[in-house]
Design goal:
40% of the residues lie in helices and 9% in strands. It has 370 residues and is of the alpha/beta class.
């Protein structure tokens, strides 16, 4: 029998080698897009599926709101109740008939649960009497029930007037729109520009490299686009010119990675507030600095989420309410780093979750938050 062992080893060796080679090849073929390491860290975990206090999501989009079925709306209400979300702001209300459809299909059936903001169509800026028509339509929309105005990021980036010139965020032809919002007591939630890294070289030093690789259309070539600094300067300029209007600067004003600068902007503009939609990854990687910032500016911050996915809200609750360490963000291409909980004080949670929204968004029922 011992004479057969060498032969048996020879027959088995290719199979063993092949298996090892296949494993090596699999590792060699792996790309950064597929890299999903599982943390070996053993720490306390507190998955929070329901906010400690009732909250308002001030940044949501329901593009099909006018035609949502009763079943879909009922499901939404059930999910909101499960998360302790008392009210949701649909920023995509549109204008005219579209707005009327959203109001009748959502708000009328669930008063104070769904809040609708109007939108302005900037495509024809510069046409005869465009400003007068836009102002008149916005007035009509607010009188019909819109609780605010949402301005999309294309203003300042892609919107051109009738002569083919870029329409700046602070174009004087738009001033009557911002003034009307203040006159009628509704806020303007305005999204200007994008993360500054979208303008930076797509190299190994860019934190958004993976996102730009997977979503190449998000890159803003400085040679063909206005600079990030230019657009955001225009953004803050309208706040300075219209002190009687409340502006909600979306996405932490794209300064979540530079909270000292964000604080300076808030100090300079007492009519400015901001919200955390789609940028919790910035706060979650600097828990001590972000915690102090949220304590210092608790009256200027609103809760927002942007895309709607129930389980993604849990990351926000966990960052705000726990002291957990090193847990994942829900979208790798937004952030390759881990999150840390801030364990915010109750007064800060109440302010961010609902108190500031009650002050800023007209028509919300305070009794619903008791």
């Amino acid at each position: 029998m011992h004479r057969l062992l060498p032969l048996l080893f020879i027959f088995l060796l290719p199979a063993c080698t092949s298996e090892a080679q296949q494993s090596s090849d699999a590792s060699g073929d792996m790309t950064i897009e597929k890299f999903e390491p599982r943390s070996s860290l053993v720490v306390e975990e507190n998955i929070v599926t329901r906010a400690k206090y009732p909250f308002v999501d001030v940044h949501s989009h329901w593009f099909r709101a006018p035609t949502m079925t009763e079943g879909a709306i009922d499901t939404l209400m059930m999910e909101m109740d499960g998360m302790n979300m008392v009210a949701l702001v649909n920023l995509s209300g549109g204008s005219g008939e579209n707005l009327q459809g959203a109001l009748s299909n959502m708000e009328a059936k669930h008063p104070n649960r769904i809040v609708t903001f109007a939108n302005v169509d900037f495509d024809s800026v510069g046409a005869p009497e465009w400003t007068e028509r836009a102002v008149a339509q916005l007035r009509t929309d607010i009188e019909a029930g819109a609780r605010g105005l949402k301005v999309y990021k294309n203003l300042g980036l892609d919107v051109m007037d009738v002569e083919g010139n870029r329409v700046a965020v602070n174009d004087p032809r738009l001033d009557p729109i911002w003034a009307l919002a203040g006159e009628m007591g509704v806020p303007v939630l305005i999204h200007s520009a994008e993360p500054a890294n979208f303008w930076n070289p797509k190299d190994e030093f860019n934190e958004k490299w993976l996102e730009l690789k997977l979503r190449p259309n998000r890159y803003r070539d400085p040679a063909t686009n206005p600079s990030w600094e230019q657009i955001m300067s225009e953004h803050y300029d309208i706040m300075a010119k219209h002190r009687g209007t409340t502006f909600i600067s979306a996405h932490l004003s794209w300064l979540g990675q530079a909270l000292t600068q964000l604080g300076q902007r808030l100090d300079e503009n007492p009519n400015m507030v901001t919200e955390v939609a789609a940028v919790i990854y910035e706060l979650g990687r600097q828990p001590r600095t972000a915690r102090q910032f949220m304590i210092d500016y608790k009256d200027r911050l609103l809760f927002g989420k942007d895309s709607y996915n129930v389980e993604e809200f849990w990351t926000y609750f966990r960052v705000f309410e726990t002291a957990d360490e090193y847990f994942p963000y829900y979208r790798k291409y937004h952030a390759q780093w881990k999150m840390y909980g801030m364990n915010l004080p109750d007064d800060v949670l109440r302010a961010v979750y609902y108190e500031n929204a009650l002050r800023i968004i007209p028509g919300l029922d305070p009794a619903m938050f008791e």
